[in-house]
Predict the 3D structure of the following.
Amino acid sequence: MSLINDALKQARKAPPRSTPSALPPLQPVAREPSSLPEWILPSIVVVLVVAAIFFIGWAVANHSMRTIVAAPPSEVETQQVANVTIPVIKPHVEEPPPAPAPPDAPKLQGIFYSPTTPSAIIDGKIVRPGQQFGQYKVKAISKYTVTLIGPDKKDFQIGMEN
């Protein structure tokens, strides 16, 4: 510790050093006038951003319009008329709806679907697959329909619209 104190005492006794000022102080540099105005670069950036937003919006709108306007699938056949093949477009014909349930079919009032234990409310009673319900037996319960086996041993489905 005494070595440090001795060094400090000697530093205080020594005359202060003067630093030679060999270089003159720096002068401010005058800015050269540019050939382009200062506002041109930011305005170009803004125009490019607006154009990009416009084209992205146009592409999204065009894509959605294509899916909305898309026609239903159709079949194309060819017909030979005077040695000229003409494509004839046949419109897509929808399949007929499934056969309606018998007129005395029970009314489905709700479905509690679970992959392991589905259940349904039919005419106010809770039923599960395999249970007998009046003259019907519950064959299966899906998310939207209940398949029943009627007294004539034929399967039919009932849904919430019945």
